[in-house]
Write a structure and sequence with these properties.
- By secondary structure, this protein is of the alpha+beta class.
- The protein has two domains: 2-56; 64-182, no CATH class.
- The protein contains six helices and four strands; from the N terminus they run ααααββαβαβ.
- A hairpin with a 2-residue loop joins strand 1 and strand 2 (116-125).
- The longest helix is centred in the N-terminal third of the chain and has 29 residues, at 28-56.
- It starts with a helix and ends with a strand.
- Mean pLDDT is 78; it is low at 161-186.
Length: 186
C-alpha cells in the first residue's frame, strides 16, 4: 500500500503501459521525438556558441583589461549616448587619462555580391582604431590616422573572410590590397 501510494496507482500504470504500446505502434512518434531532440540540441549548441564567443573567449586584442568605453549623457537623459566625431576630437585633444582614444560607430549596410546582396554588420572607425587595439593586418595594411584627414581616399577592410567578394572591392575602386584582412585564431 505504501509503495502504491508513493509511486502511483494501478490505473496510472495501466494508462502508462497503454500509452507506451500506442506510441510504439505509431512510427510517427519516433520521427517527432527525434526531430524534437535535434531541434533542442541544435538550439542549445547555437546558443552556447554565441555565449562562448561573446563572454568566455578573450578579446583578440593586445590588452583587453585596459580597454574602456567612454559615453556621454545626452540632454534627454540617455546615459549611454553616442558621441559625434567633433566630440571625439575634443576628447582626444584634452585626454590626460588614457593612453589613446579611438572612435567607432556600429553600422549596417548592404553588401552586393554578384546579382545578390546581403546585410552586413560593420563599424565606421577612426584611423587609429587598429593601432590602439594592437591588432595587425594579416595582409595589406590597417587603417592609419592619415585616413581620417579630409580628402583621403576611402578605405575598407574585411574581418573573418580571406577576401571580400570581388564585386565589393572592384565597385569601391580599389584593389584587394586595400582590404587588409585578419583571421581570428582561436
Amino acid at each position: 500500500m505504501i509503495g502504491e501510494a508513493s509511486h502511483g496507482t494501478h490505473e496510472f500504470y495501466d494508462f502508462r503501459a497503454a500509452l507506451t504500446r500506442r506510441l510504439i505502434q505509431h512510427h510517427g512518434f519516433a520521427a517527432v521525438a527525434i526531430l524534437s531532440l535535434a531541434v533542442g540540441i541544435g538550439f542549445n549548441t547555437a546558443l552556447f556558441s554565441i555565449v562562448d564567443a561573446l563572454l568566455f573567449r578573450p578579446l583578440p586584442i593586445d590588452d583587453p583589461a585596459h580597454i574602456v568605453d567612454v559615453y556621454t549623457k545626452s540632454s534627454d537623459g540617455d546615459t549611454y549616448a553616442t558621441n559625434s566625431y567633433p566630440d571625439y576630437l575634443d576628447f582626444k585633444a584634452r585626454n590626460a587619462v588614457f593612453t589613446d582614444l579611438l572612435g567607432y560607430s556600429p553600422s549596417i549596410g548592404a553588401l552586393k555580391a554578384g546579382d545578390r546582396s546581403r546585410m552586413a554588420l560593420g563599424e565606421v572607425v577612426t584611423g587609429n582604431y587598429f593601432q590602439v587595439l594592437g591588432v595587425p593586418a594579416a595582409i595589406g595594411r590597417t587603417l592609419l590616422p592619415e585616413d581620417d584627414r579630409a580628402g583621403a581616399p576611402r578605405a575598407g577592410f574585411s574581418v573573418g573572410q580571406s577576401r571580400p567578394p570581388k564585386s565589393s572591392w572592384s565597385r569601391a575602386g580599389s584593389s584587394p590590397a586595400r582590404w587588409p584582412t585578419r583571421r581570428r585564431t582561436s
